[in-house]
Amino acid sequence: DKEVRAIFLRLFAQLFQGYRSCLQLIRIHAEPVIHFHKAAFLGQRGLIENDFLTKVLNGMAFAGFVSERGPPFRTCDLFDELVAFEVERIKAEEGNPPKMIKHVRELAEQLFKNENPNPHIAFQKVPRPTEGSHLRVHILPFPRINEGRVQELLQEGLARSQGAPPATRGDKKCVVPAGPPVGMFTCS
């Protein structure tokens, strides 16, 4: 699973290398608008007549990508690092499948570590029942649930959740690395 995701991550990093240099921040509105200059991106990469990439850039998914990843100050992730710092490595590995596979496995391992930072905590062993435990007769009946008390607890929980601030992730925001300009990349 992680290796397939790593392959797609690498593919999209290759497709969108240099995209940050074609972002324009427009501040005439109350909230800044981020615009992606498609013609400049395709022209500088020599892909003006590439139907596939043109359709990708015109799609709603790419518009969401630009609005989510366009701000210059946000939480950075593995994709940002690939686009900004791994340009030369990806280029060098194009003709060398063993190096490419090694890189994909490294990315897959990073994806796994990002999702499971403490894998030893996630799995708890359930203790085996002691010998003869099935013969014990002191099993207590399951207590009846007090419906009124359940409703009280639900109402208290709802009141607390409505008054509490929204939960946020603990990720630190940083300036997103721009990476090399899009003019460096020419594709065939």
Automatic annotation (TrEMBL):
GO cellular component: cytoplasmic vesicle
Chain ranges passing through the membrane: none
Record SMART domains: dDENN (SM00801)
InterPro entries, per database record: dDENN_dom, DENN_Domain_GEFs, Tripartite_DENN
Cited PROSITE patterns: DENN (PS50211)
UniProt GO MF annotations: guanyl-nucleotide exchange factor activity
Domain of life of the organism encoding this protein: Eukaryota
UDENN domain location: 1-76
GO biological process assignments: regulation of Rab protein signal transduction
PANTHER family: C-MYC PROMOTER-BINDING PROTEIN, DENN DOMAIN-CONTAINING PROTEIN 4
Protein name per Swiss-Prot or TrEMBL: MTMRD protein
